[in-house]
Write a structure and sequence with these properties.
159 residues, mainly alpha, 79% helix, rod-shaped
Length: 159
């Protein structure tokens, strides 16, 4: 009987070792499936991140292009305004010079008028009176001087 009990024990051991191997094999397959699923989820996350970053890059490139265009337009406007401003400065200088010249003429006429009034008494108002023979005193000649056009060109601009 001894032999029969040892035979059942060995078959039980073989069966239990077979079931352990089967159980280990199942666990191994389960781990493999779990690892595959985890790797698939990881790849999906990476792909989503890559897609998001690509979309962000495209958006930033578009925004950068818009900013560069805006800066270019603003620079052109600035240069145009700067050129116009330079012309206006030149015209201002010319007008100031002409005003100073006219003030000098008026001052000269006033002093000349005072001398003439003291000496001859002929001209009472140098800007209105036609009785004076002086070229600068004659109103027709004064209108000629005052109606000269202003000349300013962008070529002669000084900053």
């Amino acid at each position: 009987m001894e032999s029969s009990s040892s035979g059942t024990t060995s078959s039980t051991i073989q069966t239990s070792s077979g079931s352990e191997e089967s159980l280990m094999e199942q666990r191994k397959r389960k781990r493999m499936l779990s690892n595959r699923e985890s790797a698939r989820r990881s790849r999906m996350k990476k792909q989503k991140l890559l897609d998001d970053l690509t979309a962000q890059v495209n958006h930033l490139k578009k925004e950068n292009t818009e900013i560069v265009t805006s800066v270019s337009i603003t620079t052109q406007h600035y240069l145009t305004v700067e050129a116009e401003n330079s012309v206006l400065r030149a015209q201002l200088d010319e007008l100031n010079h002409r005003l100073q010249s006219l003030n000098d003429i008026i001052e000269f006429l006033d002093s000349s008028n005072n001398n003439n009034n003291n000496n001859m008494g002929m001209c009472s108002n140098p800007l209105v009176g036609l009785e004076c023979d002086d070229f600068f005193v004659n109103q027709m000649n004064m209108s000629y001087i005052m109606n000269q056009p202003l000349m300013a060109s962008s070529d002669a601009l000084m900053y």
